[in-house]
Specification:
The two termini are 16 Å apart. With 266 residues, the chain is an alpha/beta fold. Helix content is 42%, strand content 12%. It has an eight-stranded parallel sheet.
Length: 266
């Protein structure tokens, strides 16, 4: 069975250890992986039987956007298992975003990754709407993957994303962490939103398999993608947690690879 890790952060060798440490400090979580490098990702994923990876990194300054996208481009060129998602930053103008998206689409990128809590923007504020308008130039099959949720912050609450999904029905959103990290009681707000999808990462260590199944049933098994949020969790252990959810083999295959392949036309 194919297994595509639909949520993996990677960093250049020289900053990977520090970046991984910073993420752990931000979430107050012990990171399972020592550094978010390509080599560590591939070794960890190989042990779990992964066959593909959506890789990305996050710009915290506008000046970082092109260099990060160039790094992701080099990695997807070097590794046939990799599917690249680009970064953007809210300080870019809408015209600059459109040009960066064009540059990335021409080079085989398949989507955009944003992290409102790291980048410090509210999902539903005016400055963020530039992302959504710009993304439409690449079409509905060029989705925006967003970190969503965290009860410590207001930037990425599920209600904010649901509001934007209604306002921009032609934008495809992927709400990470079962629709909202540490906000799983709020995810019912997405029900009926056809343009919102979800991934499973950084949730299964905190919610029961029964609760995970309830959310999948509520929002639709065809809307979920498997991801492990590398370098946060050990791939084998995360896959074991996922396999504890009572799904049919067809449903399991859909989440592990079928749904993301369909969305991205892979």
């Amino acid at each position: 069975m194919e297994i595509i890790n639909a949520h993996a952060h990677i960093y250049p060798q020289k900053i990977a250890e520090k970046a991984t440490e910073t993420i752990g400090e931000f979430y107050n979580i012990r990171m399972d992986m020592p550094a978010g490098t390509t080599d560590v990702l591939l070794a960890d994923g190989s042990r779990a039987g992964y066959t593909g990876y959506i890789v990305h990194s996050c710009a915290t300054k506008a000046q970082q956007v092109r260099s990060i996208n160039e790094f992701i481009k080099r990695e997807i060129d070097a590794h046939k298992e990799f599917i690249g998602f680009m970064t953007l930053h809210q300080d870019l103008s809408e015209e600059e975003m459109v040009e960066e998206i064009k540059w990335c689409v021409e080079r085989g990128f398949k989507g955009i990754k944003l992290h409102p809590d790291f980048q410090r923007f509210y999902i539903d504020e005016d400055i963020a709407e530039k992302f959504y308008r710009a993304s439409m130039t690449a079409g509905k099959t060029f989705p925006i993957l967003l970190h969503v949720g965290d009860d410590r912050y207001e930037y990425s609450k599920p209600a904010r994303l649901a509001k934007m999904a209604r306002k921009y029905p032609n934008v495809t959103f992927i709400a990470a962490h079962f629709g909202g990290y540490r906000c799983w009681d709020d995810v019912e707000i997405y029900k009926g939103l056809d343009n919102v999808y979800f991934d499973t990462c950084s949730s299964l260590p905190f919610i029961s398999p029964e609760r995970a199944k309830q959310i999948i049933d509520l929002l639709g098994v065809d809307k979920f993608f498997y991801g492990d949020d590398f370098p946060m969790w050990d791939a084998t252990e995360e896959l074991e947690r996922f396999n504890q959810i009572k799904l049919t083999e067809t449903e399991r295959e859909m989440i592990l690879s079928g749904n993301i392949k369909k969305l991205l036309n892979l």
